[in-house]
Structure formats: structure tokens, C-alpha cells
Design the sequence.
């Protein structure tokens, strides 16, 4: 079903070279119309360079990218009318109010005079900024600045919205509000390309995720597909009373464990054979005269999955 | 074409609203030329008929270049300049927008100096229409020069230092304060290389009805051509600034 949908963003062998550094190395992917596409990777992986090439802020060394069928280099003006871009920093104009900032963007995108004001009001209300419409950008909180920067990218009703680290530095509340609003925008038909290094964010709100590392795409799929493909590991969490033992002692006695680590007030064991590990944990507790105060089996979380995919997992 | 011009006007209005009250634009663009002219006036007989058009040229030069310094260097440093590159417009339109905001500031800077010079000297400009045209052309040329120069500076804390390193020698070498006739002959090529020389020449002709170096038809043409060349070059530099 999904494969029959057309590509809002189509990237073919896209490459960026800075001197001797290949920042992006022949990546290819398709972002389907109407999906939230997470572009995930560690710092310096090539995420921002990719986005900058797609939106026309960085020259492409080789390869090709199309947005809604238009070449991002040859038809850059058409493409810029179709996209909204939210950079990793909230960079609107400090001395302008929320209203003035949005009006400026509307004028620059060529939003017709008759609908400009209505559209700006609608966005201010949608993002909960109406009561800050006369507040200068410099006086807004970080979360409100972020919301206004996103609103500014939506003023011309773009088909595709690029967001570079949209929730970076935001508190939990602001982050959740923003996620809800992005989901709502997506429901209204906006294709969202979300660049992030926040694994939870990518897995939480994306329909599909591409993971980039050292300039190459190392995995692509839905969060469920990635979990199925890469997550063979489960984790056993255990806590002992009166206190947790030394890890070396545990390693000696718990057979069938791939890794044992201390996490907060408990110990995590990555099992090769979970039944054998659980049995050995019980034997070990009896041997040392310890009481097991907690024993739990859980699947690897998104972060562990990500580490495994980018090849950094222990 | 009309659409691009309209958008450059929006950029100019945004810049003017954003930067005209910034300390750099206010002190170097508005106060400095006025205080400089005032200093000549206080020294009895200092603000001569010859010096008055030079003071006007200086005001429009400092006013326009200070505005471009603020609007471009600060925006490039804080990332908001890139916003302009995301809009569906030509790179030259961005350069023109920045030129127009600098132009507006240049015109604003002239007003107090013009009032001061005409009130003190009680001179009626020789060619009021030509003076208006000269002021427009000279401010346009100074604005494009300022826009171009702004792309050479990256650090906002150094912007006025760098700009003044360029502007102060020009003040003395562009027939503004020191008449070219009092300078050694070998300085003339340097004088002719200054865009400010042509600004001062056209304003002088409109104000006094005479010229020092070049006939008015040449200086008017050169002022316009240099302005357009700087504008095209600024558009090209914006395009080339993409990594």
C-alpha cells in the first residue's frame, strides 16, 4: 500500500564533499507524500548537510534531489514555494513582534494580500501564540520562539516541512506540545522531514525513519520494522537486597550473559539465553545470601536499538 | 521583475525597523556625520561653502554603510540572513533589499547635516533637481559599497573597526575634507579609485554648481555605473556564499 504512494522527496546518490571530507556519501531515499519521515543520526553524521542541500542552502557536489517532482537545483524557486524550513536555531528577527515576523514571511513567500492577515492570525492561534502577537521575538521564551519559527515556515501552506532538531533544548512540556502540533499538521496533509539526534523523538512521532552515520544511510524503515530487524536483544533488569554485588563477581557466576552493567539502583543483563540467565541469577542470590528485590525482562529500547544500528552498541 | 522589486522593498522595510535604532547605526550613521559637521561649524569659518557638500556626501556615506554593516554582518552571524535565502527570490533581490535599507538610512542621515549647512551658510543649492538626483545616486552607490564591504566582515564585534579602517582614509582621500588640488599629483589615481570621490563630486555639482575633478556628466554616470556594478557583485557574492 505504502509503496504505491508517490515521493514528496526523492533523493538519488546525493553527495557532499568538503575538501577531503565526504560529509554525505551517495545517499538515496524517498519520502512518501503525507508521512513524517525521521532522519536520525549522531552529531556530525551528515543530517544537517543533507537538509541544507535539499532546501538550497548548501551546494550539491553530485547526485540529484527532487521535491514534489521538481529539481532542487534547477527549479530552486519553485521548490522554495513548496517547502517550509525550520532551522536548528530559532532565527527570526529580534526587534519584530510575532505578528510582524509572520507578516514579513507571508509577504516574502508571496501570500496574496487578501489572505495574508487571516493566515497569520490562524497560525498564531494554532501555535498558542495569539496573546504574544505584539511581543517582540527577543522577549519570547525558548519554546515560544521555536513555535513561532515553525509558524513562520508554514505561512505559505507548504507541501513539505523540513525541521532540523525542532525540540532541541526545549522542556518536556514544550516538546510534547510541539509533537502534538506536528502530528496535527501532518494530519492536515503536510509531509514532514524531521532531522533529529533524539532517538525517542524519531521513534515516537515518525512514520518511517532513516538512520545516517558517517554520511551513509545505514538503515531505513518504520520504527516497527527497524525494531524487528535489529532488536534481537532483550534486557533483564535485576536488583538485590541489601545491596547489589560487584559486577566482576556477577560476571563470573552468570553464564549466558552478553553484557552486564550497573544502571542506577539496579543491574542490567543482556542475555544470550534468558532462561539460563534468570536461573543463574536465582542461584547466585542463594549462593551470596542476597534477596532479589526486582527482576524484570524488557525489550531493548529505541536508544539501544539506535546504538546497535550505528555500530556503537557494546 | 515587479515582484522581485516589491520583495526587496519588504526586506528594506524589515531591516529599517530592525536596525535603525541599533547603537552602531545610530552613532556612526547619524550622530558622527552630524557632530563632525557641527565641529566644523563651531570653529568659526570652518564650515565653508566648499566643505558643505563634502559633509553631505560624508553623511550619506556613513549613514548608508553603517546600516548595511548592521543588517548584514549581524544577520550573517546570528543565522537570520539565511532566512532570506530560503524565500523564492533572486540573490540580487536580497542584495537590492539590503541596499534599499542602507539607502533609507543614508537619506535620513543627510537631513540634520543638510539643515545645519544650509541654515549656517544660508546657501540655496545651485541646481536643486540635480542635487536631488545627485543625492539619490550617491546614496545608492554608497549603499551598494556598504553591502559589498559587509560580506568581508564576519565578526559583529569587529564590524565598526573594519568599516572605519576603510571609511576614515576615504574621508581624507576622496575630495571631501581636503581638496584634491592641495594633494600631491601622485595621489590622484588613489582619489579616483574611491567610490566616495564620485559621490562627493555629484553632490558638489548639485550644491555649488561647480566641480573639482570630473565634469558632471562623467561623475553622474560613473556614480550610477559603480552602484549597479557593486549591486550585481553583491548578488553574486551572496550566491557564492553557499558552502
Sequence:
Amino acid at each position: 500500500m505504502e509503496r504505491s504512494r508517490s515521493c514528496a522527496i526523492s533523493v538519488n546518490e546525493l553527495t557532499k564533499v568538503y575538501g577531503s571530507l565526504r560529509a554525505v556519501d551517495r545517499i538515496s531515499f524517498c519520502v512518501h507524500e503525507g508521512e513524517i519521515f525521521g532522519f536520525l543520526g549522531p552529531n556530525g553524521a551528515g543530517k544537517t548537510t543533507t537538509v541544507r542541500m535539499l532546501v538550497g542552502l548548501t551546494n550539491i557536489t553530485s547526485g540529484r534531489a527532487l521535491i514534489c517532482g521538481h529539481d532542487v537545483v534547477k527549479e530552486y524557486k519553485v521548490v522554495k514555494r513548496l517547502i517550509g524550513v525550520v532551522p536548528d536555531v530559532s532565527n527570526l528577527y529580534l526587534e519584530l513582534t510575532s505578528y510582524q515576523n509572520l507578516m514579513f514571511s507571508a509577504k516574502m513567500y508571496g501570500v496574496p494580500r487578501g489572505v495574508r492577515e487571516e493566515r497569520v492570525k490562524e497560525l498564531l492561534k494554532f501555535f498558542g501564540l495569539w496573546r504574544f502577537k505584539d511581543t517582540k521575538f527577543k522577549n519570547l521564551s525558548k519554546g515560544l520562539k521555536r513555535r513561532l519559527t515553525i509558524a513562520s515556515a508554514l505561512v505559505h501552506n507548504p507541501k513539505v516541512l523540513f525541521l532540523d532538531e525542532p525540540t532541541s533544548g526545549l522542556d518536556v512540556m514544550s516538546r510534547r506540545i510541539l509533537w502534538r502540533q506536528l502530528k496535527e499538521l501532518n494530519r492536515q496533509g503536510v509531509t514532514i522531514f524531521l532531522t533529529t539526534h533524539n532517538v525517542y523523538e524519531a521513534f515516537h512521532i515518525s512514520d518511517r525513519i532513516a538512520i545516517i552515520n558517517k554520511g551513509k544511510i545505514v538503515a531505513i524503515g518504520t520504527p516497527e520494522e527497524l525494531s524487528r530487524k535489529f532488536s534481537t536483544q532483550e534486557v533483564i533488569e535485576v536488583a538485590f537486597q541489601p545491596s547489589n554485588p560487584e559486577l566482576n563477581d556477577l560476571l563470573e557466576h552468570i553464564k549466558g550473559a552478553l553484557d552486564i552493567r550497573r544502571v542506577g539502583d539496579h543491574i542490567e543483563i543482556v542475555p544470550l539465553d534468558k532462561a539460563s540467565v534468570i536461573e543463574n541469577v536465582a542461584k547466585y542470590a542463594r549462593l551470596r545470601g542476597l534477596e532479589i528485590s526486582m527482576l524484570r525482562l524488557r525489550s531493548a529500547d529505541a536508544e539501544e536499538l539506535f546504538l546497535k544500528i550505528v555500530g556503537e552498541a557494546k | 521583475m515587479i515582484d522581485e522589486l516589491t520583495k526587496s522593498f519588504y526586506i528594506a522595510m524589515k531591516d529599517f525597523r530592525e536596525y535603525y535604532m541599533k547603537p552602531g547605526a545610530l552613532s556612526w550613521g547619524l550622530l558622527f556625520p552630524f557632530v563632525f559637521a557641527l565641529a566644523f561649524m563651531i570653529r568659526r569659518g570652518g564650515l565653508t561653502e566648499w566643505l558643505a557638500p563634502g559633509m553631505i556626501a560624508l553623511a550619506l556615506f556613513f549613514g548608508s554603510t553603517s546600516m548595511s554593516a548592521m543588517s548584514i554582518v549581524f544577520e550573517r552571524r546570528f543565522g537570520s540572513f539565511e532566512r532570506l535565502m530560503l524565500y523564492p527570490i533572486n540573490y540580487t533581490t536580497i542584495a537590492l533589499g539590503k541596499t534599499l535599507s542602507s539607502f533609507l538610512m543614508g537619506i535620513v542621515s543627510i537631513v540634520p547635516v543638510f539643515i545645519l549647512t544650509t541654515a549656517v551658510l544660508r546657501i540655496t543649492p545651485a541646481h536643486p533637481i540635480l542635487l536631488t538626483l545627485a543625492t539619490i545616486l550617491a546614496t545608492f552607490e554608497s549603499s551598494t559599497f556598504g553591502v559589498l564591504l559587509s560580506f568581508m566582515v564576519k565578526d559583529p564585534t569587529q564590524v565598526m573597526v573594519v568599516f572605519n579602517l576603510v571609511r576614515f582614509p576615504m574621508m581624507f582621500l576622496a575630495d571631501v575634507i581636503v581638496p584634491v588640488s592641495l594633494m600631491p599629483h601622485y595621489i590622484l589615481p588613489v582619489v579616483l579609485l574611491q567610490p566616495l570621490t564620485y559621490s562627493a563630486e555629484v553632490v558638489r555639482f548639485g550644491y555649488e554648481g561647480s566641480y573639482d575633478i570630473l565634469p558632471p556628466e562623467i561623475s553622474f554616470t560613473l556614480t550610477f555605473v559603480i552602484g549597479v556594478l557593486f549591486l550585481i557583485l553583491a548578488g553574486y557574492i551572496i550566491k557564492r556564499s553557499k558552502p
Remarks:
- Residues 172-187 of chain A form the longest helix (16 residues).
- Chain A has a mean pLDDT of 88.
